[in-house]
Amino acid sequence: MDLLFIILLLAMAAVVIVLAIGIGGFAQGGKFNAKYGNKMMRLRLLFQFIAVVLIVLYVTLRGMGGS
User: Which of 1, 19, 20, 66 has the greatest CB tally within 10 Å of its CB?
Assistant: First the structure.
């Protein structure tokens, strides 16, 4: 596996982790959700954006014959 693919996998894992924390906090409610719920979803959107950019970069480089 090349380095870009590994970074891409880590970015996707970060999205899943932040999403799970956000959903868990939302399901529990309480102080954590009131304080961090919106921040977690914003962080998820940021990580998703980074993951999509990396996917496009990976596919583009693979299409050009890059490694």
Answer: 19
